[in-house]
Amino acid sequence: MTERVPDDDMRPQDREEVAIASESVGRPASAHGYAGSMALPEESPGPEGSPEVAMTSPEDLSLAYESGVEPKARSQWAYARIRFFRHKMAVLSLLVLIAVGFVAIFAKRIAPYGFDELDLFNITSGPTLKDKHLFGTDLLGRDYLSRVIYGLRTSLWVALFVAFLSTTIGTTVGSLAGYYGGVIDNLLMRFTDLILTLPGLAVLLTAAAFFGAGDPLKVGVILAFLFWTGIARIVRGVFLSLREKEYVEAAKASGAGDGRIILRHMLPNALGPIIVNTTLVIAAAILVEAALSFLGFGIQPPNPALGSLIAAGQGEGFQLWWLVTFPGLAIVVIALAINFVGDGLRDALDPTQRRIRA
Amino acid sequence: MPEPILSIRDLTVEFNTEDGVVRAVTDVTYDLQPGEVLGIVGESGSGKSVSMLSVLGLSPQARIPKGEALFKGKNLLAMSQRQLREIRGGDMAMIFQDPMTSLNPVLTIGDQISEALLTHHPDMRDDAAQKRAVELLEIVGVPFAERRVDQYPHEFSGGMRQRAMIAMAIANNPSVLVADEPTTALDVTIQAQIVEVLKSAREETHAAIVLITHDLGLIAELADRVVVMYAGRVVELADVYTIFNQPRHPYTVGLMNSLARLDAEQEWLEPIPGQPPSMIAPPPGCAFHPRCSFSHGRLLCRTEVPPLRQIGDSTLHVSRCHFAEELEQAQVVAGAAATEEAR
Amino acid sequence: MLTYIIRRLLYSAVVLVLASFLVFTFVTVSGDPLAGLRIAPNVSEQTVQNVIDRKHLDDPVPKRYLYWVQDALTNQFGSTLLDNRPILPDLWRVMKNTMQLVLAAQLLVIILAVLIGVYSAIRQYSPFDYTMTTFSFLGLATPVFWLALMAQVAVVQIYERTGHRLFPIANLSGVDAGGGLHFWIDRAHHLVLPVLVLMVAGIAGYSRYMRAAMLEVINSDYVRTARAKGLPERRVTMKHALRNALIPLVTLVALDFGTILGGAVVTETVFSLDGMGLYFVNALFTNDPYPVMAWLMITAVMIIIFNLIADIVYGLLDPRVRYD
Lengths: 358, 343, 324
Description:
The structure holds three protein chains of three kinds. In chain B, 36% of the residues lie in helices and 21% in strands. Chain B is an alpha/beta fold. The relative contact order of chain B is 0.13. The model of chain B has no long low-confidence stretch (mean pLDDT 87). Chain C has helices spanning 2-29, 35-39, 45-54, 61-74, 87-122, 127-141, 144-162, 180-218, 221-228, 233-255, 257-271, 276-285, 289-317. The chains are: A mainly alpha, B alpha/beta, C mainly alpha.
């Protein structure tokens, strides 16, 4: 570990990035939503995989002479894919997410009722198979399964939007800061300092309260505003470490422009942690948006949202327990699945790990 | 010959990995005489470190299906953890490769050396241990030992740290000192100093030293006898002069030929072609045959693992090659050609 | 060391001032806090004008900011917009309550997370490890507010079915709390559920971190050296491994203060606890920038102090780090 320089990059939160480099889960997203810092990846190693046994015919001997016993070469992404599929939970979670995504996209066809549709014959019924009210109904007789499905849809697309926006902004700013250093880097660091001085959820709430929320798009923008700093710092970290590498110098020496170096040489190396972090941001965004909506500062009615469903059910929730339970369960299942997938991705994309079975 | 102080017999070490069972060490046999320096040479992955680490119980993932390791007559592999712990750091001590990472960064040097002392001498008083730590630092040549004993590892230079590690190892007067790549992580000039430190350590404790390294220069300077390992097996074992001047295994020959020499004219350096084999699926027969310039693809080499055979009359030189005798002629020819060119 | 602290404080002060200006601008410019007042039927023009005058609402933003700063430094953060209630006494009261909740939770979290993390690392891949990992994943996927609600629902349902009152599900103290020891016992009783809820996310996150840190340390070279010296395994774990693994955790916990407050905000809302979280949310509801600003500033100061403590403690624990 290097000497620490005050108010520069090796803060404890950065140090923890380095410290966790060898293990498979970094600091995970918390309710606050600050998607955790991640390990810096090692440069992609040579190909792994089962080696081929030495050949025995005399013609092949000369080949063997040259190469000894060579492992079969595969592309880096193929290896990542193989490693990912070794994680049963990650694969299972991926299937769950695909199913959820399917439900979200085809909500109109799948949900048995509309979001606001009343079924006056079945007011406040618990979960039942009758009339397809699998999640029960609320005080006004609205089918809860449908409401959860629609709420899920909104929450999911907001989360995806947040991830997309924050990743785009974060990667851009982070790469520029990491590559050029100097003023841009300083500005970035000072700005993140600013944001970090205030508790995240409070900032979000303030922004939502005064900026005016209610509409999913606005909420998404507000959330992205907080999340981009995390990705920016990670990309910046990767770029800082890569900047001094020989192939960057070689590219410069052969006259490559800055843009080309960044895009072709450095960014691909940052893709691993970016992907993993973006995944975690999605999970964090769902949780934070739910909290905001619950408190009334996020997505507001008439837009469906899981958090506001829970809030609405809070009054009667002690008796009509399904009003509070099912939306929350939906959040838990999705967030859990995303975290598992993120964990699997982390293992798949960081090949420096070796698991020796005890 | 006196009783060997350490005797490894038919040692086999395996690891279960995600990709299969890796046999890191197979049927390894060698003796260590008291007071001698035994060099173990090989490439990375040859199993040279693993054999010693697993024998001392420092490789918890290792499975040892076969073999014995007799230290002063008692089998280390059959001992309980407690018995092993008494020997570790006490009668048998180890020095590791990278002194920066091998020393605990949050404890002082003195603390770590006294710890070695106090663990094996529980009745020793703390201040006595501290004093002894200072003495040990002086023995290994750390200047201003009194002050430096309270410093942290990061305040020491690389060479100093390695000296501190050696001090820690000799603290309890071991009979066997295992040095695993002691100079690899250091600058060349510092390497020379550490060699001197090892020599004085040997004088101080009269310990036998197992010197594990891939640096042939180090072997030449320190070793009395040499074990050459390849792909987890012992392929040649002889005294140091024989290994350098009359090697009888193609791998050893390759190693010697790949050295840059000041005493002969060389136009090109001659590395050994090819790569070391995979330890999960090693080639059948002799593990070296795909890279061997003397095999010429002979069936025996490709199908049967050569036994470790005596060379000549004495048991002091053994080699694991089906055609070791041919090497004698090849050497004579090569030697003549070299002298011919030099003229 | 002293110069370092001073430098940090100065730097933080600048950041604080900057942040306060930005937030103030944002908060005052967006949204009109008097909107509700204006359309209320019983309120006269004069009343509205009084409020405007008192709070200088007609002045340009930078000038209002300066008024605010003056209020903050000399007048205990002034008073709320509409009912002219002094801010600081309220804030102080709720801060004490929140600190009880947060400190109790954090203390338990640290102890448990370290134990779980260390044990998981030592017995890697054991059933214990897998179970704990599953719990961690679950804990991190569960929204805090929902967990709080479920806790309440569970307690109520148990009461309905068995007549057993496990824990209070709302408020900091009962009606007849009294004083002295009885008061504190009652308080503790009321805090059980909120503390438990807050602990879940904390343990989930920190135990994973501890496990990772411990694993890295256990596989390090210096632990191998310690074993090679013949030290008993327990000594190796405690003196060599744990000490190194704990260092970053200490700072992590200190730095996490902002997150913890976030969790507290939500928990207090659900359990109707009279703490900083509820105070803040209520202030936001009324669109009153003054208590919001006060809250943010005080919290920011606390975060800065905690950050500084974190760095100092790190420097004390890790001899490789020296500030000059």
